Amino acid sequence: MTTRATRGTRRRTVVALAVILTVLAAFVFRLVDIQVVHADDHVADSMTKLSTSTSIPGARGDIVDENGTVLASDAFVYDSQLDPKLIDTYEKETDPKKKPELSWAQASEKIAEIVGMEPDEVRELVSSALEANPNSRYAKLKNGLSTDQYLALRDLHLAYVASKKRAVRVYPNGAVAGNLVGFLNGEGEPQYGIERMDQKCLAATDGSNSYKIGRGGVRIPGSERIVPAIDGGTVQLTIDSDLNWYLQQMIAEETQRQGAQTGSVTVVEVKTGKIRAAAEYPAVDPNNINTVDPTYWRSHIFSDAYEPGSTFKAITAATIIDQGKATPTSHVTAPARVTFPNGTTINDPFPHPVHEYTLAGALIDSSNVSLSKFGTMVDPATRADYLKRFGVGEKTAVGFPAEQKGLIKDADKWNGGDVYTTTFGQAFTVTPAQLAGAYQALANDGKKIDLSLVESCTDADGTVHEAAAPKSEQIVKPDTAKQVQRMLENVAVQGGNAKTTAVPGYRIGLKTGSAQKSSGNGPGYKKGVYFTSMVGIAPIEDPQYVVVVTLDEPTKMRTSAADAVAFQQAMTQVLKTYRVAPSSEPMDALLPKFN
């Protein structure tokens, strides 16, 4: 028989069981929510609160020359620090089992020996930090330690010494092609040159090392997660660093000997448009850019534009021959000074009686008056178009940082003087790189190939990305270019610098330029100040290389004769470096001496 008391006890049991089951269900629900439904969120949250992460730096890619010689690379150094509070704790510890094997006095001796300091200096770092803050956990030991120094410190097994790895940029060949290679700032950001131009290839992607930590900051075994760093790629240039070194030494000597402000040598391979050397003085050493004025941190071969002067008379000759208006033996009557119908007066750079100048002879004597008469046989719009075809007014395809494109006015804006002065390299500006590009086209039988400075980018995994094939364009007829080449050979044989510029065993083509420099204050030129240049092609029977030499404001000789020795040495070295076979025939003298 069920009594009232029995029924009450049963109800209480049922209620208690229901409560227990409800609480248990709540716990199960919460456990499922934590471990299943929102597991990822909680893991991420725990990683944030209970883990730490350190960066794994990747190495920036190398810059190498055409032969693989390293011009820029990354090296790792270590910045080391001490934990003053931990050192103090160990020193005050009374339990011998908890003390390090080395006392602070002993450890500081060994540390000092490794990092190149005095023991008292090391101890002073710690005592000063503790004096300023008894709980200090940081005192800088020394930055920029080598790998050997880092390993020696690590092998001391001292918990209060920590070192952080850091990449630094080094340039093993110093100033060799330094104006091209460029440099990084103190934050590791590319500032100029190839370092900046090819940042996408060279830049590394840092990795990370994360792990969970338990009580007391102890790393939890098995919790480590490593995302490896991806090193930057290797940029291979078209230049030969050995050739560049020689030309830098040579142009430095000649620039100083001629009392010039700057000098440069540019070498271009005719059949490919590849820049094989770009030597400059003053040169910048990317390891220490402060050894030269910031003006010279950039490449003047790409960033300085000037009126090319007489070197562009060959372009005028190519224009009028290509247009069928004249031949090398066509002639004009030319005094040393002439005033044209529009009132423009043109002077030759030297006095002479009235001559019947052929076009070839006008190039040999570099007669401004003759070129004015020949050049205006072609209308201004057509001449302006040819100048642009030869690269005037457009940056080269190299895409070099801070590169100038030069200036040229549209033909309909040429004034009365421009109509004539453009025939002999005035009223527009070019860079040495553009000048080299124009002569590459003449040397390549009228086919202009975009200049290039980079061969390839090779990823860290070995994948090679070749540079895009350069664009090319036939800008004058092959026969036109051949005729101009012959005229340039006559300049080399019969011009005033013939003996100084001759390269024994080789037939060469040559043109000089002594360009007036702008006053910088409106129209007009500086008096007695010139930017001189000399550009040549060799061997003329099968052109392989173009060499451009420039001097800014030479003072010993103020004409392009100042460039003659540098040109001869540069062309000789280029032909030697690339083992170009000597000409099979002597210097061509089939054409008569033109007047």
TrEMBL record:
Pfam entry (one): Transpeptidase
Residues annotated as domain Penicillin-binding protein transpeptidase: 263-569
GO terms under biological process: cell division
Subcellular location: Membrane
Keyword set, alphabetical order: Cell cycle, Cell division, Membrane
Source domain of life: Bacteria
Main location: membrane
Domain Penicillin-binding protein dimerisation: 56-206
InterPro entries: Beta-lactam/transpept, Beta-lactam/transpept-like, PBP_dimer, PBP_dimer_sf, PCN-bd_Tpept
Family to which this protein belongs: Belongs to the transpeptidase family.
Protein name: Cell division protein FtsI
Biological classification of the source: Bacteria, Bacillati, Actinomycetota, Actinomycetes, Micrococcales
